[in-house]
Design a protein that fits this description.
Helices cover 0% and strands 46% of the residues. The protein contains no helices and 14 strands. Strands 1, 4, 5, 6, 7, 10, 11 and 12 form an eight-stranded antiparallel beta sheet that branches.
Length: 185
């Protein structure tokens, strides 16, 4: 479950739960489920799915992925609009937009109390990510309310201001897992 940064609470959000799976075929699936007064949030309207920059300035869900013992990492931004962005970094905040054949599939469901986003990404398209390694993962979210205030949510926050790129955010380790042909989440 993601935690709000102590300096940026959002009282209308009750929780943001996450789940993910990574298959030996190279597909990482991440699920975000925001519960609360969704009608009190600014949720980007659905658009034609395409790559777009600055999604983090509004409500969006983020995924950070790096190989174990490697300073390089990737950042994915998934907007409820269906838009996405991919960034590649050589080291802490040393990088920028990453152009590749990575095109996430994004599915969004919304009702009065929940906003759910599922994103599927082929990680085998990324340099340095093979299906036989352990990954360090950071899951996070930016939530915008009707007052244009941003709230920052992550698995773990470092001391100080919100910083999803900080190594503390990479709080989850995963390996590709399949048992009898079924993916374990």
């Amino acid at each position: 479950m993601l935690q709000p940064h102590p300096d940026t609470p959002c009282p209308v959000v009750e929780s943001i739960r996450t789940a993910l799976s990574w298959t030996p075929s190279g597909v990482l699936t991440v699920n975000y489920s925001l519960s609360g007064a969704v009608d009190q949030l600014l949720i980007p309207a659905h658009r034609l799915a395409h790559e777009s920059d600055n999604l983090w300035r509004h409500t969006c869900f983020e995924l950070f992925v790096g190989a174990q013992n490697d300073a390089e990492y990737y950042e994915f931004n998934f907007s409820p609009s269906g838009q996405w962005a991919v960034y590649g970094f050589r080291d802490y905040r040393d990088g920028g937009p990453f152009t590749s054949s990575v095109e996430p599939e994004i599915v969004v469901q919304r009702d009065a109390r929940t906003l759910k986003l599922t994103a599927m990404v082929r990680l085998d398209c990324l340099p340095g990510i093979q299906s036989d390694i352990r990954l360090w993962v950071g899951l996070s979210a930016v939530v915008e309310d009707l007052n244009d205030s941003l709230s920052y949510w992550a698995l773990k926050h470092p001391p100080g201001k919100p910083d999803f790129h900080h190594s503390d955010n990479f709080a989850l380790q995963i390996e590709p897992t399949v048992v009898d042909g079924a993916t374990i989440d």
